[in-house]
Specification:
The structure is a single chain. This protein has 267 residues and is of the alpha/beta class. It folds into 2 domains: 20-59, no CATH class; 66-263, 3-Layer(aba) Sandwich (Rossmann fold), CATH 3.40.50.720. The protein has 10 helices and 10 strands. The strands form 2 sheets. It has an 8-stranded mixed β-sheet, sandwiched between helices.
């Protein structure tokens, strides 16, 4: 009787297995979407859904075997989640304590009007199942703090910052450093965005936000294009880190009011 590897060899073409053939394989051998993708990638081939990703099957396999954490599931968190679903990460942990409100509709990409009042992580889990059932999502409706950090960061390869205030970001940086985990920082405020790669122990966010005056509260709106651009850069940096490529630390500042990119490499 033919096994999955033999099926893949027979049915693949030009370095990939078509989505139609993959579905047939899943049904024939009783495989989940995740199991089927693993079989294909282990053989050095690409599932069709990923063939437009600009890397090879070995790099795609690194994504599938990675465990990522998104801390916060508001504007940035929603955009980060959507992009990871498309790219094909393996396990995704998402934490947020809040529910959706009408003022979120201008920028939070998971949100529909029918979702108002629902927990953000609940909507995130639904979206993940709809877009990419090969991704295993773990959602936690809670605040990231001393009491939740250990369990949430257990087994995580990389963390993405989608928080909305400085004290929580500084705590997140320390929590990641204590566990030797790289943090991909992202922040948006009005017409500006910021991203950085925070290596364990470097204290980059403490350096950026260390001045007392920067802790002043600022009521600034966030447009959806700023969210999308900032999240895209975070995910791009995360992919490079996961694939073992060298990258700077930043921070990199984005000015959405004009066409200029402001590079502020300080580490």
């Amino acid at each position: 009787m033919m096994n999955p590897e033999q099926w893949i060899l027979r049915e693949s073409d030009k370095g990939f297995l078509s989505f139609e053939k993959q579905i047939q394989m899943e049904k024939r051998f009783g495989l989940s979407r995740r199991e089927a993708e693993k079989f294909v990638l282990e053989m050095g081939l690409m599932p069709e859904r990923y063939i437009r990703n600009p890397w090879d099957a070995n790099a795609q396999k690194k994504l599938l075997h990675s465990t990522l954490a998104i801390v916060g599931c508001g504007a940035l968190g929603s955009a980060l989640l959507e992009q990871w679903l498309r790219l094909g990460a393996g396990v995704l942990k998402v934490m947020d304590p809040d529910v959706f409100a009408p003022s979120n509709l201008n920028r939070q990409m998971l949100l529909r009007e029918s979702d108002l009042g629902r927990p953000k992580v609940e909507v995130a889990a639904r979206r993940a199942a709809e877009v990419n059932p090969a991704l295993y999502i773990i959602t936690v409706q809670d605040v990231f703090c001393d009491g939740t950090a250990d369990e949430f960061l257990d087994g995580v390869d990389l963390v993405l910052d989608a928080l909305d205030n400085i004290p929580d970001r500084l705590f997140l940086e320390k929590a990641c450093a204590a566990r030797g985990i790289t943090l991909i920082h992202g922040a948006i405020s009005g017409w500006a965005g910021q991203v950085a790669v925070c290596r364990p122990g470097a204290g980059l966010l403490s350096f950026i936000y260390g001045r007392a005056e920067i802790h002043e509260s600022r009521a600034v709106g966030n447009p959806v294009f700023g969210v999308a651009a900032t999240a895209g850069l975070q995910v791009s940096l995360a992919c490079r880190v996961l694939m073992g490529e060298k990258t700077g630390c930043g921070p990199w500042f984005l000015d959405f009011s004009g066409p200029e990119w402001v590079d502020m490499e300080i580490f």
